[in-house]
Description:
alpha/beta, 23% strand
Amino acid sequence: MKCIIIDDEPIARKGMKRLVDSRNELELLASFGNAETAEEFLEDNDVDLIFLDIKMPEIKGIEFAGRIPRKCLVIFTTAYSEYALDSYEV
C-alpha cells in the first residue's frame, strides 16, 4: 500500500516513518509537516493510505480528511483523546 504521513510534529513524523518502514506491505511515498503541501501531492499521486494528525495548526485533520480528492484509507493519529469520537464520523 502506498502511504503518506501528515503531521506538524517532526518527532511524530519520524516515529510514524519508523513504523511504516517496519511493514513490508507499506511503501512510504512522502511525509509532510502540513496539510497544504500534502494536498498538492495528492492531486498528482495515487495514495492508498494516509496517516493523518488530527490536531494541526492550519487545518484540523478531520476537516482535511473531507477534502481528500481520492478515495483512500485514513488512519488518524493524535495524542488527544477528545478527538477520538469525532474521527469515527469522517
